[in-house]
Amino acid sequence: MATTDKASPRDRLLEAAAELFYRDGVSVGVEALCRSAGVSKRSMYQLFDSKDQMLAASLERRRPWYEAQLTPADGAGAPATPRERVLYVFDRLAKGSANPGYQGCPYLAVLVELKDPEHPASMVARAVKDRLEGFFREQAEQGGAADPAVLARQLMLVFDGASARAGARIEHLDDGLAAGTAAALMDAGGMA
To answer: Residue 38 in contact with residue 50, Cβ under 8 Å?
Structure first.
C-alpha cells in the first residue's frame, strides 16, 4: 500500500479500499480493509456509514487521476484533432494494460461485480463511464460524425471490451487492435 504513517485514517482507508477492491473485488471484507489501512473497524464506521459508502468514496477519489490518465490535456503537444484525441484514449488504454497489475477498468469491474445500478459505488462508476462516453460524443460531433451518439456508444463498447479482455489476460493491446477498431468505427461513422 502506498500510504504513509502521516496519512489520515480516512485517507488510509480509501487507499486500502482502492487497492484491495481493484485487486480482489468488491467482496473484500471490512476486517481486511481495516487491517490493510491500519485502522480499527470502529474508526471506519465513524468515518463511513458502510463499506458500500467507502467503496463509492474510494472510486470518486480516484476518478480525477483515472480520467487524467486517459483523456488528453490541452496545451502544447496535445492531440490536435478530434480523431487524434479519441485514438489517444485507446493508446493510453494499451499502455496502461501493459502494467503487470492491470485487471481492466476499475469502474467497469465495479459495475459488473455489483449488478445493482442503485448501489452508491455503481452510481459513481456509471458517472465515470458516462463522462468518457460524453468525451467520445463531443469528439465525434467536432469530427463531423454522421451520428455522434451512436459512434460514442460504439467506441465505449470497444473501450470496455478491450479493457475487460486485457484485464483477463485474453488480449494484449500493444498490437493496436483496439485503436485500429476505433479508427475503423470513426471511418465508418464519417468522422474526420
So the answer is: no
